[in-house]
Design brief:
The protein is built from five helices and no strands. The protein is mainly α and 146 residues long. It comes from Melanaphis sacchari.
């Protein structure tokens, strides 16, 4: 019985380990995507941006640096696609499911990038390397205005 009670109190510790392992797996995945840019696509952007947003807000310098590189690549390669698809919403005449899906993914990416921009705006005054990263990221995120 004592063993069960002791193990029960260890559950938060184990969950914390799992949570950090998941974060590390995401970081490794982002590192692969940063170095192999041809693996990026709009689907990947829309799926990974929420976790990139979480990582950049984590406070861990390594997580922030990898997130910065991922956001930089997303802005560089997909911002024109996102802008074009948002400026041209699906037409009311006929049904184009692919266009509607693309529009929804682009809208989702833009909303998450706007949330990241508002977070970064508050963090620009941080001193040191992180401050420089946040200032650079803020400059890059100025391009998301449509």
């Amino acid at each position: 019985m004592k063993k069960l009670i002791k193990e029960r109190y260890q559950i938060p510790k184990h969950l914390s380990c799992v949570y950090h392992c998941v974060k590390m797996c995401l970081i490794l995945f982002y590192i692969v995507l940063v170095y192999f840019r041809n693996l990026w696509c709009l689907d990947v952007c829309s799926m990974l941006l929420p976790s990139i947003s979480d990582l950049i807000q984590s406070g861990n310098e390594a997580f922030i640096n990898v997130s910065f590189k991922a956001i930089r690549d997303i802005l560089q390669y997909f911002m024109p696609v996102i802008k074009t698809n948002i400026q041209r919403p699906p037409s009311a005449i006929g049904v184009d499911i692919m266009q509607e899906e693309r529009y929804n993914k682009c809208r989702k990416c833009q909303n998450i990038l706007m949330d990241i921009r508002s977070f970064v705006l508050k963090r620009q005054t941080v001193q040191g390397n992180l401050g420089n990263v946040f200032r650079q990221l803020h400059m890059l995120l100025q391009t998301i205005d449509i």
